[in-house]
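Job type: complex structure
Entries:
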Amino acid sequence: MKSLTTWRWNAVRGEYEEGDPPPLRGTGEISAIEAFSNGTTLLLGGTGFVGKVLLAMLLDRFPELKHLVVQVRRKKNLSGEERFYSEVLQSPPLRTIVERIGGQDVIRQKVRVVEGDLDQPLCGISLEELQQLKGKVDVVVNLAGVVDFDPPVSESIEPNVYGIQHVIELVKLLGAKLVHVSTAYVAGKKNGRISEDIPIDGYFPFRGEDGDQRRFTVARELNWYEEFIEETRQTRTTNPRPLRERLREGGMSQAEHWGWTNTYTYTKSMGEQLIAQTPGLMYAIVRPAIVESSLRFPFPGWNEGFTTSAPLVLMGGDGVKGWPVQYGPLEIIPVDLVAAGILIVTAAVLCGKNKRVYHLASADENPIMLPRLVAFLGMNSRYKHKHKKSGSRVANVWKAYVETQVITDKSLQSRRARLHRGLDVIHAVLTLGKTLFGPDKVGPYLKRLRDTRRQIRQQEVTLDKFLPFMFHNTFIFETRNIREATRMLTNEDLKRLKWEPETIDWADYWVNIHTKGIEKWIRPMFAASRKMGS
Amino acid sequence: MNKAAFYDLDGTLLSCNLVTTHAYYARNERSLLKSVYQITKVVLSVPLLFGLDLYSRSLFNVFAFRAYRGMHRDRLIGLADDLFEVTLKPSIFPGAEALIHRTRNLGYRNVLVTGTLDFTIRPIALHFGIEEVICNRLEFRNHVATGRVLPPLLAENEKANSIRQYAVQKGIELNDSCAFSDSSADVPMLNTVGYPVATNPTRRLRRIALQNHWPILELRETSSKFPPFLRPAKAL
């Protein structure tokens, strides 16, 4: 819907302003059009959430693009190339773009697909392909990696640390520059403004805090990892606890030991440190905050996977009322802004005008405060349960009309304890009923209780994973470098690549774009996975 | 040749008004106490608003919008879908969708021109598949409504002015365009186009329509016949 008006919303001041925004003017020190039309980019991880939007944006906004190499991993019976054409190009963010620019034939002229795998040396690209690419690739953009917060440590270290070693080998062999996409949360357990100038090598979040003088090195951490894996395997038969669980806990406790929030940020930081340690490597590290549904491109509300705030939105939609949050911002950034940011940095690297680190985040210019998001979650729950035709009527009324609340961590724990005590009592009563009236009559209720308990436990685990970003710490990632790079673009580039988090109308974005996007794209996947799990 | 169909909303496509919309937000405050206070304010203001509407639509709008003072924009946007489902959707006239469908099929650009507020309009426009909207906006300071409306207040003559401006911007031929409204307050709007249609007209507008030989359309009835210019041409 297009509203015809001369007024535009100033999201930062929270009021309307009259007239057109001042025209964007760049200094022209960086030309993205020239960089992408003359240079060859090798994209690693182009099949993920950010990768697909970036690929779509590059193809859509830069018709001048001549050479792009995309590395795709083989999947079961599909070769990398088959997977690219039948899966990646057919995905919702790319399908319409590919049609618009002239179909797969046009793509074949511009894009070369190479099969590979980051788990393998030189990213698993064949020697024959490497010979052909040598000296021809100008920049490697690496978006690959595992983004789960707390997987078994091996599943995170292999791609995020050893995988980076393979990327560095590849970049050196090709004689290219590197744009590596990491996360802003490598900062770890910190509060307040996070600078882009903090030295990368040897960093750990507790460094210097309370006189912490320890020394962090990736080599020593990898030694710890090898020993830990060996020890865990050796005690496999004697230790009754599942191996995956022990590997998960091992990663989390090692991350927390140094001050990181989880295994993901710990391993991502190590990956960055490997890059920073490599002599002679020309690189830029891009650190997005929490990447969310697209604002506009390829269409509003596109989202994929559970690694964004999607689990929280789904929980809010399911009627969770108490939210432990600080009065601080949630550092979220729409995926299309992230894609534009990465392309701006890539152009800067190609033009030799880049800085080392670029945060891609919103709170520096236009923060969305957590209590506002809690209120949005409540309004979504109200809408959903007021019009819900299935389920318990009493529960629906409760979920529709009881407002969400901002609570403390302590209050969260006492609420959980009360809830579990209540469920224990119901369980005891039903078990007694089963003895008295037989399993046929009471069995179904017991099953429902079990399902409810499982769902509640899942919600608790999910919420706990997000607590470091909502309650324990409040971050504002400084974004000076990306703003500076944007100002260095040409005027024509600025029409194609927009870095403008200050214009995001958060109310409209959260209510009409993000929540609806998650309900459309993520809810069905979530429901299917829950069904499979049960 | 570009032509457009300009639609008023309240009373034309659905039977709702600014008071019922505000009453919804009053009912859905964060706390029960606040809701009771707001609803009382709405009830007490009804006689005054009724009188004002008879006197001047612009004055009516100014007073009706004042009731939003102090409300947070997040809440107005966050509850808009529910407002639509609960209050607006059930009040859509039976013939409204068919009419919009018809004008679209005949090549008109459908445009809503209404005094209703932007956040209320969004789900309605999406429901009807109308992509362009000219409507009112509240003034906000730090996300909180001041109770004032941003100029120009869209009512009476201002609707006609907006249509003329829109026509210039988009290259619309107003003589080939049509407009639909229920109220005599919208006579200036109806006069701007070549094909004005009094839609579910008030007694006063009906009289004006008959004097000017404007077609009269009843969307409250499913069996109402569209005016001749909206009937598809028969094959010879």
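Summary: The interface with chain A takes residues 28, 30-31, 73-75, 77-82, 85-86, 111, 118, 121-122, 125-126, 130-135, 137, 139-144, 150, 162, 166 of chain B (CB under 8 Å). Chain B has ten helices and eight strands.
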